[in-house]
Amino acid sequence: MISEVQRGLYLSHYESHFYDFYPMLAVRESRRPDALHCLSIVDIVNKSVFPDTIVQSRSDYDPHYFSSSELSRCAFLLPHFDNGSRVNIPYRCIVPKEIDGLLLSGKAIGQTYKGLQFTRMSADVTVLGYVSGMIAADIVKTGVRPRDFVVNDICKELKAIGYLSDDVGVSRTSDTNDIINQLLAGNNYSWLSCCLQNRAEILPLLKKEYQLSKALVLAKALAWFGDCSGTKQIRDELEYLYEQELIKGHSSAYYEEYDGTNLYWHINQDIALLGMSGDRDNHIIVGRILSGTTSGGRRVPAKDAYNEGRIDLQLIPYYNRIINLCFYAERNPSHLFIHGFEKLLDDVNIGGFKTTCYKETRWRLYSANLELFIAAALARCGSVRGIQVLLDYLDDIHSDFRRFARKELFAILKKDCEYDIVAWKRQIDKQTFPLRITPLVKDIEI
Length: 446
Known about the structure:
- The chain is mainly alpha-helical.
- The protein has 4 domains: about 1-30, no CATH class; about 30-70 and about 80-160, no CATH class; about 175-225, no CATH class; about 230-430, Leucine-rich Repeat Variant, CATH 1.25.10.
- Helices cover about 45% and strands about 0% of the residues.
- It is built from 19 helices and 2 strands.
- It has helices at about 5-15, 40-45, 70-75, 115, 120-140, 150-160, 175-185, 190-195, 200-215, 215-225, 230-250, 265-275, 285-290, 320-330, 340-345, 365-380, 385-390, 400-415, 420-430, and strands spanning about 55, 85-90.
- α10 (about 215-225) crosses α12 (about 265-275) and α16 (about 365-380) runs parallel beside α18 (about 400-415).
- The chain is globular.
């Protein structure tokens, strides 16, 4: 009988498009156990310094996914973002939180999903394996528990042989006033630093500076933290940018390279930030953009042989625009948006991608993902069409999609019929449509 590990490895190598294998061991995305320290995007962006750093890694942010997180939707953390420096990995990341007598290594260390993107490169993983072996040998010699082991001598040795840089302990963090000044100076990297600050600490400073300068960049920072003070300024920019896009057009051959500086992504960013602000006055311009949005055409093929198998990059031209419109509508639902989203579902390049056959999943996956986002936004806006699409996905072949559809139906209808489609239909028949709106309330994903 094939073991779960063997099955997971086989699926991840050869048939990864057939199943949801994320609980399994996989090539790119390993399990992430609990450790004494969990390396996060906050550590990485703030260039955190640790006294027990044992390895430094270097990579850009490449999740092979468009990411629905707030940081990515607002174009602050798009694929191939480069933090510009090495990432410090402390010893505590390889020490399990509760289990004694064990060290972690490789990619399966204490880190978040976003943290993994900066530590996953083969060379860095190899070095971590080597260093973990050095530490394990010393632990055996000294007879102490891993959590009680002091790595000072190991760190000195690693510096001596060039595995750690001489400045590994030099702090590069900035205070909140520095971050605001960097924003005003046009330092794009400071966006992430700003977003990851404590809201209670930085928001008063942003509001004070905005009252003095009325700078658009600060209006956007305020919107990120849910403050409406500068949303009119963002709306004005969005209206101008959208008019420019209508004049210039958006190519049906647009291949997504996640260039946060282009017109398309500037518009996407403004839509998402207005969604974060919670200001209902934004509905008019967002509704106008929604009404004018289509798929843009068929899925755009890759430009080269290397990417021709990448299902995450071969998208319809307006894929990420639609995701951001959903992002806005989920958080700020309105009956005004129902017609626009229902029109999108009628587009042959967007609707009808539920899958029940294993052999059809690969190139339908991202289309189905988009269809589900639209359905969730529609349902939260009160549309029966959105509810019906969610209901349809309760028997999709992807377990993630089934779980998501069930969770959304429960959030909107306030009753959980699990995966019993007949029971859900009975529940839906009792409703009067359009339903009352159901805003998505969630913590910012860090």
